[in-house]
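pasting for ref
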Amino acid sequence: MKFLVLTDVHGREKVAVWSNQLIESLRLDGVIVLGDITHFGPVPWAGEFLSMLQAPVYAVPGNCDPLGVIGQIEEHATCLHGRSLSIGDRRFGGFGGSSPTVFNTPFEMSEEEIERGLRPVMERGMVLVVHCPPLGHNDLVPAINRHAGSQAIRRLVDEFRPRVVLSGHIHEARGVHEQEGTMFMNPGPAKDSYAGILEIDGDIKVRLLDRVPED
């Protein structure tokens, strides 16, 4: 199985256009969306965007998505927020929103709330789909030289050791690295034409895609 991984769409309709081109050209089996589908709404746009993607979609909301976006995901895709399921022979689970930010965005939670919501989802060796990264992994904000990930997600990742952690949220922290058997990928903001690939063929591989050319 091969998936396109998108995050931080922020209301750009062009993302669906080039995503569908990649789905066709790379013969992808699905799309994983890591949140911030909208830019503070409108809520119905999330459903419109998800419906445009021409492959099965698995998604969580982001901190810039109003809470109503969860309903749009449930209606037009498979919602992974606070849930786990099997896709093929691999377990997936997810959690949306973020830990508190200075911007007071629509879907923020305390670290305690994140841990309570995410812990029941966690399994060893899983694919973890989150909007907010674990602290210290793909979360450095260069302008302030500060790591902005979630402490709760980091604790759970250290405890359960998922095989892959897919996250977005920090636009500047695009990258892939591996630590203690867990691969971490931030595919970069889709609004700027960035994406990644998750491939499951026995084991798991992740890679960043070159910036998608814009017409």
